[in-house]
Request: fold
Amino acid sequence: MTMMNPISTMASITSLKVLPEEFILQPDEREFFRNQRSGDLAFRTTAYYFSLINIKNPDDPIRKQCLPSSREHNKLSVESSDPLAEKLYSPLPRLIHRYPSRVLIRLTGVCAMHCRFCYRRELLDHETAPLEREDFQNILKYIQNQQEINEVLISGGDPLTLPNDVLEYYFSTLRKAAPHVVIRLCTRIPVVQPLRIDADLVGMLKKIKGLWVVTHYNHPRELTDISCEKIALLKEAGITILNQSVLLKGINDREEILLQLFRKLSHQGIKPYYLFQTDLARGTTHFRVDLKRGINLYGALQKKLSQLMLPVYALDLPQGGGKIQLNQNSIIGKENDFYLLSDQQGRSYCYPVAEQLL
Ligand code: SF4
Reply:
């Protein structure tokens, strides 16, 4: 049985006023709220996710993912509001075309929870309306005209914050316009608001042929009984589920935590797909695991997990350099406080040495 603290409903939490009396803010959390600045990512979580916090532990990994910290005000010059340079690869509003064979559509900038490490954190509060139908039609024409595209990622924000009838419109229209593409639905809802996954939603998703769901569990404690029940509903509907995690300092950057996470995911029939090194989003320095340490950690996992349970450890290179897999040979040099990395074309990129930046 999963233990929960007193709040346990579907509601969102956006204000400190609704937190239970026994919940005591840590100094860095209090400082954030006292000193909130324009451009800060607003506090937003779900009552469900909040209920998973062990309130006696100031370093609780659930707490750290949803409670803001004044450390977010520590913004480094190497960090960016658009760390993957998505604007460069956006031929149409809400469309990203970074790789020849796939595109990503941001249906909405709304999320059930504002994860404090999110690399799209500076977009979330702006794209609050769903993608306009006219913009969507233009995107469909774009996909139809680009023969190479065979995969469409539906992302956000979190698409599952939209009502079922709106989602059905997007999915069925896309399916009709581009019957050949695989659709990848990226969502954190099973983690932060599993009750959203009900028979109506699953029934609608079941009708979409070629649909894969990509979840985002970062810690084994997020795989609660209710979350696993909802995953089982999706599996029973014949939907294949993958998971991407982010390697986060003080949250999951320990061998035993990651082993437990990937084993638990696999046991639920979720394939661990990616483990991401954090992107250089502004105000996320305190979540960054040193790259060399991350590579060593991954090496330890490789010795203990089969390919079935082991995700790919990857980094989206800064300035839109694209994704690379990380392994013992990835670091090709070091200059001052930066590791040097190379893409497939041999171009080099800098990624900061984490410990020296803190
Ligand atoms: S759910 Fe995803 S997009 Fe939304 S804040 Fe969390 S990580 Fe970012």
